[in-house]
Design goal:
Layout (H helix, E strand, L loop, with lengths): L2 H9 L7 H7 L3 H13 L6 E4 L5 H8 L5 E5 L3 H9 L1 H6 L1 E4 L2 H4 L8 E7 L12 H8 E9 L4 H10 L9 E5 L3 E5 L2 H7 L3 E7 L4 E6 L7
Parallel strand pairs: 1-2, 1-4, 2-3, 4-5
Antiparallel strand pairs: 5-9, 6-7, 8-9
Helix pairs in contact: 3-4
């Protein structure tokens, strides 16, 4: 499976983990956690980009609480029809890109976004598209938040070391419902290596929320 296969799976996704699925459940504890973090660090007028925004349940929560420049990238065209039904104000006022992250991110200017965040999206990015991480660092003016599944990372790294594969740079992978891939990555190492400071970590039952600040952001 290559990155084209992964993108095609998400573009055609229906049922479980589809835009309609997430809209049904609406904003959740993750939405609240992202909001609290942005309120702490980011001017509400700053543009905020969500990677893989689906039908907008997290962005709508931010928008309703004063972050009035929402931007989203989403691969599944159904997401925007669902957004118009469930979050019409967000759909009308936000800026959205129907495309893969890899096909959009290079279009943005340096430091274009006050905050960039991902909720269980970067974990599905194929290894041949990992150059995207450098682009995210480039376009983030202040805050970068990853909300990704890290529950098996340490265990898988231990298994890899015991098997004698310590030198491999490829992330470990599992398949959700034997269907689409989930890559386990060390997000702390990835973004601190790109110059960001990790300023907060929250570990939940499902995901780990990591908050990074861009170089020199704390001095402004």
């Amino acid at each position: 499976m290559d990155s084209n296969d992964v993108r095609r799976q998400w573009a055609e996704r229906s049922g479980e983990y589809s835009p309609e699925y997430y809209a049904y459940y609406g904003p959740n504890e993750t939405s609240d956690a992202i909001l609290r973090t942005l309120e702490r660090f980011v001017d509400p007028a700053a543009p905020v980009l969500e990677l893989g925004c689906s039908s907008g349940r997290h962005l709508s929560h931010l928008y309703e609480h004063g972050f009035d420049s929402p931007v989203g990238i989403e691969l599944n065209a159904d997401a925007f029809d669902v957004m118009e039904d469930h979050y019409p104000d967000l759909a009308a006022d936000g800026e959205f890109y129907l495309d893969a992250i890899e096909d959009v991110v290079r279009e943005f200017d340096d430091d274009q976004f006050g905050a960039v965040y991902s909720v269980e999206t970067l974990q599905h990015l194929h290894p041949d598209a990992e150059w995207v991480f450098e682009e995210l660092a480039r376009i983030t003016d202040d805050l970068l938040i990853t909300v990704e599944n890290e529950s098996e990372l340490e265990e898988r790294e231990t298994e890899r070391d015991e098997a004698g594969h310590a030198g491999s740079t490829d992330p470990e992978v599992s398949y959700v419902n034997d269907d689409f891939p989930l890559y386990y990555r060390d997000w702390s190492a990835i973004f601190t290596d790109l110059g960001f400071d990790e300023v907060d970590v929250q570990t939940g039952k499902r995901d780990t929320i990591r908050t990074f600040r861009a170089p020199d952001a704390s001095d402004r």
